[in-house]
Amino acid sequence: MGLGNPGPSYAGNRHNAGFMVADVLAERAGGRFKSHKARSDVLEGRLAGERVVLAKPRTYMNESGGPVKALRDFYKVPVERLVVVHDELDVPYGALRLKRGGGDNGHNGLRSVTRSLGDKEYLRVRFGVGRPPGRMDAAAFVLKDFSAAERKELALEVDRAADAVEALLREGLGAAQNTYHAG
């Protein structure tokens, strides 16, 4: 599950890192997203030898929980197998952190997902976007596009995050953390 905001005006925003990773995973699975009744775009396919359902909610970030729960219920995915990819202010740009559970750390998308699921023990791939410069409001920062300097490496970082998702599926959380927390 990649988190982001729908529509072209948000496509390059830091808050859409989850959608960017989901798009790369969809390419790797050799499929296209299709509209689903759960207010999401969905692709069923295979990654890392596993059957997967990739999804991007068509709601705004703050309302991601409803579609996530609806898809989880529809596909009967146990919460411990749910992977949510999202932007993370407290991780430096270019770094990834993988974990299970925890708080939402002020991330409205995660807050919505946790509230809707009634459970916080899902897997997370945290795509580092860094802290806003100076006194810039965090909400304004994540709704801005990546900077020119960041965009030079963005495709590589998104690809690396997609690799981390596949490693998580193939090897499990501990092994994936050992590989991807170094960066």
TrEMBL record:
Entry EC no(s): 3.1.1.29
Active site: 15
Subcellular location: Cytoplasm
Catalytic reactions of this protein: an N-acyl-L-alpha-aminoacyl-tRNA + H2O = an N-acyl-L-amino acid + a tRNA + H(+)
CDD domains: PTH
Source organism superkingdom: Bacteria
Sequence positions that bind tRNA: 10, 60, 62, 108
Enzyme class: hydrolase
A GO cellular component annotation in the UniProt record: cytoplasm
Keywords from the named record: Cytoplasm, Hydrolase, RNA-binding, tRNA-binding
Site entry: Stabilizes the basic form of H active site to accept a proton: 87
Discriminates between blocked and unblocked aminoacyl-tRNA, annotated site positions: 5
Annotated GO MF terms: peptidyl-tRNA hydrolase activity; tRNA binding
Gene3D superfamilies: Peptidyl-tRNA hydrolase
GO biological process: protein quality control for misfolded or incompletely synthesized proteins; rescue of stalled ribosome
PROSITE patterns in alphabetical order: PEPT_TRNA_HYDROL_1, PEPT_TRNA_HYDROL_2
NCBIfam families xrefs: pth
UniProt subunit comment: Monomer.
Similarity section: Belongs to the PTH family.
Function: Catalyzes the release of premature peptidyl moieties from peptidyl-tRNA molecules trapped in stalled 50S ribosomal subunits, and thus maintains levels of free tRNAs and 50S ribosomes. Hydrolyzes ribosome-free peptidyl-tRNAs (with 1 or more amino acids incorporated), which drop off the ribosome during protein synthesis, or as a result of ribosome stalling.
UniProt name for this protein: Peptidyl-tRNA hydrolase
Gene name of the encoded protein: pth
